[in-house]
Design goal:
The protein is an alpha+beta fold and 206 residues long. Helices cover 19% and strands 43% of the residues. The protein contains 5 helices and 15 strands. The strands form 3 sheets. It has a 6-stranded mixed sheet. A 6-stranded mixed sheet has the order 9-8-7-12-11-10. A hairpin with a 5-residue loop joins strand 4 and strand 5. The longest helix has 11 residues. The radius of gyration is 19 Å and the shape is elongated. The N and C termini lie far apart (56 Å). The relative contact order is 0.13.
């Protein structure tokens, strides 16, 4: 089934079936995330699917209300070197739109291991990501109101935006740490330090 054929139907059943087969979920037993990084199928065009900034998935301009379907689609997301995001199966690759990040971090889990603080985020598709050397955390200031936006690496080139409520919990864990001679406000996780902003910048905003 091509992307043109998919867009001509009123639901996502064709693509859903392809992804279920690719994910090994035909019998209700999921094998985990498919190895999308190993697949090199032909590009089949654009699909009218969009991930909004609040993490909501839209298909043909309508929100996808089935969380299980969103989770299924998210399992075959891949962002390529061209900067575009695709749904990838062994037989086809279709491009979708992403307004901000691929996922949304909706819950912060604070734990301790070997005497060090460990931060983990749960995403809106049910994945848990532990922040550290492999899954980095970074902060950007963006938007017309210069809003602070935390992001973390999920897998491949895919990233998640931390929602506002969870961001406030994250900021409460910040502390002053000197980095390369500059006093920074930062958070720690798994032995890694993730700067938020300089203490001078922070004081200027208070």
């Amino acid at each position: 089934m091509t992307s043109r054929q998919i867009s001509e139907i009123k639901d996502t059943s064709g693509l859903e079936d392809l992804i279920r087969k690719a994910a090994g979920d035909e019998g209700g037993k999921k094998r985990g995330l498919p190895p999308v990084h190993l697949w090199n199928p032909p590009f089949c065009g654009d699909l009218d699917m969009e991930i909004r900034a609040d993490g909501t998935w839209f298909y043909l301009g309508t929100p996808i209300g089935r969380q299980t379907l969103v989770n299924l689609f998210s399992s075959v997301l891949r962002k390529d070197e061209d900067g575009h995001t695709y749904l990838v199966t062994p037989v086809e690759k279709v491009r979708i739109r992403v307004i901000d990040a691929h996922f949304l971090g909706i819950d912060l889990i604070v734990s301790e291991r070997d005497g060090q603080q460990v931060l983990s985020f749960q995403t809106n598709v049910g994945e848990t990501v532990e922040v550290g050397e492999e899954h980095t955390l970074w902060f950007e200031v963006a938007g017309e109101h210069d809003e602070l936006k935390p992001y973390f690496h999920v897998r491949g080139r895919l990233e998640a935006l931390v929602n506002r409520a969870t961001m406030y919990e994250l900021i409460e864990l910040g502390e002053e740490i000197e980095i390369d001679g500059t006093l920074m406000f930062a958070v720690k996780s798994g032995g890694s330090i993730f700067p938020i902003m300089s203490v001078a910048e922070l004081n200027a905003q208070i």
